[in-house]
Specification:
The chain starts with a strand and ends with a helix. The chain has a single domain, classed as Rossmann fold (3-Layer(aba) Sandwich). It has a five-stranded parallel sheet. The protein contains ten helices and five strands; from the N terminus they run E-H-H-E-H-H-E-H-H-E-H-E-H-H-H. The protein is an alpha/beta fold. The chain is 50% helix and 12% strand.
Length: 173
């Protein structure tokens, strides 16, 4: 059976490192991202109390693939789904690569995000059923309760389920 491919954005990668779930998740799943998310993950203001220092070697060792994104792919995404224009750069690049690759929706692809705007865009692209929480991935990877309890609200299954339901019902337009 092929390993499940997980496409993670910058925020999910940072939260996985912050809660020490990264190694378990990348051992259990084939985690992929785009170059922009790698760049964002490895930068930031170290004086910011929310800054998560990610060891580059550990990040690279955990990734199965990191994909480049072209301007043409970005343009094709925002032409298809104008709401993607407002996404953070990492999310926009990730969605552009996924849109260009035509992998979604598929039962072997899982995309994680913790951003309402990205979830709205995923719905417009027909991908909302592919979205899963970091908590769900971590649990499936065997991460212990202590680490799961440390996850911020927007990375939890209850939060994601609630937002997806509201989007599908039109409560969040």
């Amino acid at each position: 059976m092929p390993q499940v491919r997980v496409f993670a954005d910058t925020n999910v990668i940072l939260e996985a490192f912050r809660t020490r779930c990264w190694t378990a998740i990348t051992t259990h799943f084939a985690v992929e991202t785009v170059e922009k998310c790698v760049e964002e993950t490895l930068t930031g203001d170290p004086t910011d109390p929310r800054h998560v220092a990610v060891p580059p070697a550990e990040l690279h060792a955990g990734l199965t693939a990191r994909h480049p994104v072209t301007r043409k792919e970005l343009a094709a995404l925002v032409t298809r789904q104008p709401g993607c224009m407002t996404l953070d750069d990492g999310e926009k690049h990730l969605f552009a690569w996924l849109h260009a690759s035509k992998l979604l929706p598929s039962n072997v692809i899982v995309v994680t995000t913790a951003d309402k705007a990205a979830l709205l865009a995923s719905n417009g692209l027909g991908w909302i059923s592919c979205m899963t929480s970091l908590e769900d991935l971590a649990r499936k990877a065997g991460v212990g309760r202590v680490n799961l309890d440390a996850l911020a609200l927007q990375y939890r299954e209850d939060w994601l389920s609630s937002i997806k339901t509201k989007i599908m019902l039109g409560v969040i337009p």
